[in-house]
Amino acid sequence: MCSEKQKNRDTVAELLHGLRNKAFITGSEAVAEAVKRANVDMAIAYPITPQSESMHLVGELFAKGYIRDYYRAENEFAVMAAVHGAALGGGRVFTATSGPGTLRAMEMFPVWAGARQPIVCAFMCRGVSLPPSIQPENIEMGMLLDTGMLMLHAENGQDFFDMILQAYLIAEQPDVHLPVGVFADGFFVTHTREEMLLPPEDCCLPPYDPGFAPVPVFDMETPPMRITRDPLLNKSNFISGSANASWHQEVLAAAERARKHIAHFMGGLLEVENPGAKIFIAASGTAVSQSREALRMMQAEGMDAGLIKIKSIRPFPASELSKALEAADLVVVPEFNAGGWLAREIRASIDRNHRVIGAPRVFGGMTMPPWLIVEEVKKALGAGQNRGGC
Amino acid sequence: MKTGMLKISPGFEEIMPPEYRELVDNGPYGKDYGIGDLGSYKELLEEHPLCAGCGLALSLRLTLASLPMPEDTVIVGSTGCSALAFPQVALHNIHSLFGNQNAVASGLKRALKLRFPEKEKDVVVIAGDGATADIGLDMVMQSWLRREKITTIMLDNEAYANTGGQESGMSMQGAVLNMAPTGKKFPKLSLPEIAHTCGCAYVAAASPAKPKQLAKVVRRAILVAREIGPTYVQLYSPCPTNYKFNPKETVSLIKQREKDGLYQSKEYISQEAQAFLESIEVKK
């Protein structure tokens, strides 16, 4: 349905910068709106809360002809394997999952990256552990940091919509050609209705052309040669070890090359509010929204505070953070998980990292009221004064 | 595959490896070769590293020589001994992970159908018994239940051979292997019957001891998958390394097993597949 109306139009520019109409929709509906405009060949689904609704809606898109093939697979590992097969065959694919589904599918994610496939997967993050929880929590992101996939974290439904389309544009760049995970905190984003701005329905991404892929497509339309991973895997010698390592390095290098495309399509890996501040809150996902409120409360009290919204988790904006926080005295990192993976990433990226306070952390379905963040800032400032102002 | 795609650009003939040149000059692409032509053309399998007397290698060689349309066939493999041979196979072949082969093949077949609506692209899964009957059974059966138009071929050596000879679901009851130190406690899985029940349009069990039969069932399975629905072929391929018999006795061991009633060839054909096969085989 996309292709007919698109001839002679720069639909990428239209999608990113063109006129948009208001819509009052949920995050799940925003996912379907993005997929509708993404010219997807195949979507494969397996139900899990809170992802299910979005993949129902994607199924409806298939029924209406927006997607060329769609089915409900047998489990998340099989879903991720099947979208991998479809991508290897040259198709543009979409799928989505949540928490335990992410973990069940875990073995496939490094395979996507290692095979350099531009698969886009949405993750509606939720709790994964005992006691069972379906509540919002993004611990699964911490577990995916080194799978080789690029990771974007949406603050709200608008981000979720935009980032899915941006993900295809970034993933399919020939010098990148890597999978992209687009993450949103489950329920907070998926089940919340908000006003969003959407481009017209007849404006879609141009179709995916696997001819530009930096790896061969498995369709027997190029001469067959040794293109599987086996020569790297099966021989325990220096040559195969080096070949494996250099391939792996190229996957990492491709992720580095994605930085310029993220800057181009998303306006940067992070956003800084009040750059001259001494006190910063640095966050990703819905913790950013809570931090905005906390910032307002602190500024109302006359505190010199700023906010850093981290949009790209992989690649991570280490140098941008280091620069933005050069003159800061304190960086508070609120997170929706018990592990504190974002605080760890920030600590590893900046000098004088005693400035980083990894708090508050909420999980298991707890909310993050803005005053909790303000309290952590004040506590840290108080402790700093007690230490003699350092 | 486009005609002439393999052709070497002028001036590069000497640079291309000899085995590639042989494939270009005398390969099976676009030809109607069968196992009767073996020895007269460049085979798809080049210097595989499998053990002497490997039944699996023999089955694989015969299977590749029986493909009805190698120039448009993509193989999906899995972890195991066969994965050691696939880098040496001159077809696009995918090794994703252990056990996910039929899920990968499902996505691949559907994507190829979308990209080449007017052209047949055969997707053939070739994997071992551990990958097919144990770790991947879920995805194997689900692909049959969904009626995916793919062929699944199991190279059944009755063990996890690549990891050092562990018992598998396809080992015979009582077999003493690693991880079954007191003998396997349950019978060999009847996967052909399961495949039949799960809706495979064509199911066969064969072995390399009868090459013509093997060639016939592989060909039938691929042609039926193309037209009608999922098909399954199980190839008994004994492993001299882990079952510790003399490598030159692989074929005679299969024959002995058949004589003892412990192995039998099988064929289940759906009515639709029967009608289709009659139409093309009579024509020929």
From TrEMBL, chain A:
Coiled coil: none
Pfam families according to UniProt: PFOR_II (PF17147), POR_N (PF01855)
GO terms of molecular function: oxidoreductase activity
Keyword Repressor: no
Domain Pyruvate flavodoxin/ferredoxin oxidoreductase pyrimidine binding as annotated: residue spans: 33-251
InterPro entries hit by this protein: PFOR_II, Pyruvate:ferred/Flavod_OxRd, Pyrv_Fd/Flavodoxin_OxRdtase_N, THDP-binding, Transketo_C/PFOR_II
UniProt keyword annotations, A-Z: Oxidoreductase, Pyruvate
Keyword Nucleus included in the entry's annotation: no
GO annotation, biological process: response to oxidative stress
Transmembrane spans: none
Location of the Pyruvate:ferredoxin oxidoreductase core domain: 277-357
PANTHER family in alphabetical order: PYRUVATE-FLAVODOXIN OXIDOREDUCTASE-RELATED
Protein name per Swiss-Prot or TrEMBL: Pyruvate ferredoxin oxidoreductase alpha subunit
Organism: Desulfobotulus alkaliphilus
Automatic annotation (TrEMBL), chain B:
Gene3D superfamilies found in the cross-reference section: 3.40.50.970
UniProt cross-references to InterPro entries, sorted A to Z: PorB-like, THDP-binding, TPP_enzyme_TPP-bd
Domain of life of the native organism: Bacteria
SUPFAM superfamilies: Thiamin diphosphate-binding fold (THDP-binding)
Residues in Thiamine pyrophosphate enzyme TPP-binding domain copies: 87-234
Keyword Oxidoreductase: yes
GO biological-process terms attached to the record: small molecule metabolic process
Keywords (A to Z) from UniProt: Oxidoreductase, Pyruvate
One GO molecular-function entry: oxidoreductase activity
Identification of the protein by name: Pyruvate ferredoxin oxidoreductase beta subunit
